[in-house]
Amino acid sequence: MDQTRAKVVLVDDNIATLNQGKNLLKAFYKIYTVQSAITLFENLENDIPDLILLDIEMPDMNGFETIKRLKADVRYKDIPVIFLTSRSDDESERKGFYLGAVDFITKPFTGPLLHKRISNQLLYARVQTAMKDYANKRFLDAATHLATDIEEALVKFGEAKKTIRDKPDEALLTKLLNACESYDIDEIDTAMAEIESYEYTSDEGFVAWLRENLDQGKSKNIKERLSSFLGSVDRI
Predict the structure, then answer these.
(1) pTM score
(2) 7-126 belongs to which homologous superfamily?
(3) Element (H, E) at 61
(4) Is cis: bond before 108, omega within 30 of 0?
């Protein structure tokens, strides 16, 4: 059997209609017939068709009740449903379209008309699926690009933050310089303690150098280095 042909289910309680429909359509589609809506839903658990031809007037569950149940189930709501009916009143058509039918075919039907109506709806369904797939792909591509842009921005922000925080805050270094110039031991200890506990300090070597020179009483070295650094620091 040709696996590329669309699967069509014909639902009708009239065996003669089922046989007629199958004979007219079997050259074009993989056609399956069921005599009730109950059997239809049992079969749907295992196989989803591309289109359903649905009789309106059936016992147990009529066509209107059947399509309501189809459209309420996320698994089946997108299956195109064409109503088959011997009715010709406008009210039935309005109700059918309102419930989600895509077309109406009046019985008795002919082969060419039935085939044309089915092929039109299958084509429309394929176009809709293609458009949804395209829209989903565009959305996923956009989301991927956005995530990449955000990740790159965060990396750059992290690099910039590290560069900015390469040494203790300028205000702390200035405080230490002033304390060294005034030879205020208490102020020097306070400033140094703040520098050593500074949250963003990444240049531990620089801080260690400050502590070593302070411990050795080499305040002149510290003043020269701090003055040079503070005089050339870029203000951000």
Answers:
(1) 0.57
(2) Response regulator (3.40.50.2300)
(3) none
(4) yes
